[in-house]
Design brief:
- It is a multi-pass membrane protein.
- It comes from Paenibacillus aquistagni.
- Its main location: membrane.
- The chain has about 625 residues and is of the alpha/beta class.
- Among the domains are: about 190 residues, ABC transporter transmembrane region fold; about 110 residues.
- The chain is built from 21 helices and ten strands.
- It has a six-stranded mixed sheet with strand order 6-7-8-3-9-10, with helices on both faces. A four-stranded antiparallel sheet has the order 2-1-4-5, with helices on one face.
- Strand 4 and strand 5 form a beta hairpin.
- It is elongated, with a radius of gyration of 35 Å.
- The N terminus is likely disordered.
- It binds adenosine-5'-triphosphate (ATP).
Amino acid sequence: MSRLQTQSAAPSNAASVSASGKGHPGGHPQGKKKQKPKDMFGTLFKVWRYLSAYKSSLALILLMVILSSGLGLLGPYLLGYTIDRIDYPGHYSLIFLLGLLGLVYLLGSITQWLQNIWMIRIAQSAVYRMRNDLFNSMHRLPVAYFSKRQHGELMSRLTNDIDNVSQTLNSSFIQLSSSILTFVGMLGLMLWLSPLLTLITLTIVPAMFFGMKWITNRTGKYFKEQQRHLGDLNGFIEETFSGQKMVKAFSQERRVTEMFEEKGARLREAGYWAQTYSGFIPKLMNMLNNASFAIIAGAGGVMAVHEMITVGVIVTFAEYARQFTRPLNDLANQFNTFLSAVAGAERVFEIIEEEPEAKDEANAKAASMVRGEIEFRNVSFAYENDIQTVSDVSFHLKPGQTAALVGPTGAGKSTIINLLSRFYDPAEGEILLDGLNTRDLTRASLRQQMAFVQQDTFLFQLSIRENIRYGRLDATDEEVERAAELANAHSFIRKLPDGYDTVLDQDGSGISQGQKQLITIARAILADPAILILDEATSSIDTVTELRIQDALYRLMEGRTNIVIAHRLNTVRQADVIIVLVEGQIIESGSHEELMEHKGFYYELVQSQFERVSS
Ligand SMILES: Nc1ncnc2c1ncn2[C@@H]1O[C@H](COP(=O)(O)OP(=O)(O)OP(=O)(O)O)[C@@H](O)[C@H]1O
């Protein structure tokens, strides 16, 4: 049973020109992920379901986008118009035109500002709901789902993918629609003003298109490589930090440093090329802008001399040409960001739509006040492949009895616990609690009858008090402290500077392994279940703490039905029944004395230093 591992998921901020270079965390480089969505329209429709709650606001935003794009086009047109009227002050008031121009720019900014803040609000609300749905679905998933996937990969969906969707919703919707509107509107106006000068101006577009394509192909490749190396480096840092003791213990500092430098050098190289190529983009744009300006000025000048157009039209064209590249560039960049966000959303929906843990039977009853009688009747089970992990297992425990599960690694001890707690259901046979088939009980109520004390203690990043209270949320402070006393944890907790309010580190690293065990025992004592599942620690803890743990455990086990995955001869000896499992089958069972007399596998195990062999 492995503990929850949390991988660092702080997004890196690698600069990017196009979305292909978006930063992603260590251990899970974006470059490795498939960025193209499999079903773009299906996914967009699902995203729309989250946005559709804000239809009226979206309509307002669209109106603002149309207004701001229109105003953006009107500005240069008015400028040209004004210039053409400079000679006729009697006919047109220049002041009025200039005032109008100012108003157009002001309104343009206001509409842009409004659309931005409204869109951010909607995007954040939609993403908030999406994130909640994702988190809830994760909790509805069966245990088997998690055992097949890396935690880091799942974490990345909750962090990076959601973040990606959020960023894109914030800006892409507006940018995409405004770029399209601006581009189409600009082209229309230019054609209206002078089709010939439009054609001449457009000669620059192929150069722009191929130039950009050439650069983005290269930057895309190098950014991907940069991401891959960055992910590799971050993964390495994470691994070295968590395994820091091992590095020191094996005196590998030098080798680790060398490896780090090597990985860093690879990142430096990819980063150099990615940044160099991406640095070309503004330069190229600038150059092409200047070229188009020169073309318009030259060709427009000739046309003006021949009275084909006015000077005002040249100014309008020059202004448009200056803006011309922006929507094109935005469209190219936004499209990549957009694709990668849709791919992210797709991964999010994959989990939201994942088959949840099978529903309880329609007439399932809630288990309550159980006595703790457990019976396995001819239970067989295979995880996924056809190899049976547990075959024809039968045993019967009366309330208050203690069973020790003993057997070599991989024998199926944890699987028996998984079946009892219905993390998995048996393929054959049945498991009874107080004579009732556990399939006829609701899973939640069944699990409430059990407490787990595992060797791999898991504590939350909460105060010690809240960690203990996790066993029973409505327990009072006095009850929490009483449970800690019974678990022999009270004295050490009291000595901590913040006592019960000491907030544990992410992995509970502020306190010792043994102390963590005592807290989990207190948690189980507080839960006060009829059944206790105990996965005995194999790690060696100092003798004083060990004695404290043993003492607390005996107190915890009293009056309950206990199933212990036992590693200590002492525990096994005191069990009412010892169940010896080998390759998923019970090969012998009975009390210590009976099994010793039988001189079978258990006898051998005890002879050959029990603790070492059975761990
Ligand atoms: N989630 C899983 N999916 C597929 N196979 C699994 C899964 N969990 C365990 N197994 C396999 O089932 C077998 C029994 O595993 P189990 O964890 O029950 O053994 P165990 O007796 O508890 O071992 P240990 O003492 O090492 O914890 C092993 O071969 C293991 O590889």
